[in-house]
Amino acid sequence: MLDRPILAKFPQVDHHQASGKLAEVYEDIHNTLRVPWVAFGIRVMSQFPHFIPETWAALKPNISTRYAEDGADLVRLNSIVPGPVMPNPTPKLKAMGWKDAEIEELKTALDLLNYGNPKYLILITAFNEAWHERNAGGRNSAKLSGRDAERIPYGLPKGVKKFHLLDPDQADDRTQTILRDVRDASLHHGPASDYRVLGRWPDYLELALKDSLQPVVLSAEYDETARRIRKIAREHIKGFDNVAGVAWRDLTDKLSAEQVAGLTGILFMYNRFIADITIAIIRLKQAFTNAEDATENKYTK
Question: How many helices (H) and strands (E) does the chain have?
Answer without folding.
Answer: 12, 0
